[in-house]
Amino acid sequence: MTAGGLLEVADLHVRIGGSHILQGVDLTVAAGGVTALLGRNGAGKTTTIKAILGLVPRTGSVRFDGAELAHLPTHLIVRRGLGYAPEDRGVFTALTVAENLRLAERRGARQRYDLVFELFPELRKRSAQPAGTLSGGQQQMLALGRALLNDNRMLLVDEPTKGLAPRIVTEVAGVLERVASAVPILLVEQNLGLVRRIAGQVVVIDQGRVVHTSPAASLLADTERVRELLGVATRRPEPSAELK
Amino acid sequence: MSTVVLLTLTGLGLGALYFLVAAGLSLIFGLADVLNFAHGVFLSVGAYATWWAAGHVPGAGPDGVGFLVAVAVGMLAGTVVAVVVELLLIRPLYARPIEQVLVTVGLALAGVALLQAYWGADALVFPKPSWTQETTRLLGASVPNDRFVLIGAAVLVLVALLVFLRRTRFGLIVRAGVEDRAMVTALGINVRTAFTLVFAIGGAAAALAGALAGVYYGNVSPGQGTSMLIFAFIVVVIGGMGSVVGSALAAVVVGLVQQFANYYTMAGVGEASVVLLLAVVLLLRPGGLAGRAA
After folding, report:
1. Cα–Cα dist A105/A147, whole Å
2. Which residues of B touch A (CB under 8 A)?
């Protein structure tokens, strides 16, 4: 493992349809815990994740455990041990829950159905159900379950709580917290309560550039800085309101 | 009554040919987003290779097992051509749809020209098995046996495709890829392999259609693939891009509409009716009858 971090992104640029979306992103994701990628809407968070995975055309360097990935196609990057749960969940609606999971099985990797069904027992119960008929929360569980199925070395999770009911948000947060103890996570998230609870490090992106990197606690303690960087107010949460 | 029976079975036979061409076309478009105007070439290659094999390949012939061997050679030729086209011409152009269309249109024109240059522009008499030239009495109608061959072959291909799509890992990849190709790659799957596979399947099915079209029409000609491709495209759009079952349903409807309209009005109205049907479906159900891979 490299001294800098498990995942190191340097000078990452993405240009789509004449727009220069990422303008030289540099970031490092540690080999443990959760690194949260924050920013206003349209700042380039999702594009950063997609660029790391090669899902959008990009230039720059993406090193994972010291090996350069930028020249590899997406499927080979993922096979290095990167699990992905996208913002729109990316479940195949015409396939059943079981088929969605079966599709994610990676040859040569250990499948952890026991872990997935322990974290999300609902998925076992609904294994024969078409994924398109699941609720938003259940689809999110399936997306996370798929990312957790293989013995990945890092997870890239994009807005897992978006559009979910508060009860499900709490459930998802608990799962991510538990998973993060075993595998590092690069998490895109707008919910600062969740970030406060599970992230050790934060990276803030604005207009396609990294504008801030620090421990999560130090940024979130600075209300003015949070307002300046993210355009939202933050406060010390009351425990019950933390994830709302 | 006997006329209705004959028209129905003839329409189903024609629909069977359309389905064999459309199934591959639909999967290729659904998975790889390739509008393959060269698909008719696969049909023509299959037809000519079957015709050639019946007279030249040891063990092959115009009748019995020999005919099956000739058809197998035709299907093999169609499959090989489809795979080579995908690997050499389409693969470098997956991110360039306009060039893709130009290449497949160019290949369609070049394919017809090459067949014409080598075997001539005139239609060649196809080696029909003698049994297919006889008729069977059914509900008062004398039905040519080739109709049963066409329908039987299409049903077998439909069942085989459904088993492939629903029971194999590659089928799972194809079904998922039709819905969200990028997400399939994000699961660590090389979707390009599946592209080649659907081209191979499409090429084999189209080549089979070529051989069976030879049986149905009694001849092969360079332009046969192109003219049948137009109806296959209509079937794909009516059935729903990427849906094999949709293509099967649409092929049946198109075949029947064409036959009945031609018989009960005048020649040519059948073809116009199919285009009208396409317009109605596009207005009422723009996504087609189904719209997914199975």
Report:
1. 10
2. 169, 172-173, 175-176, 179-180, 182-191, 292-294
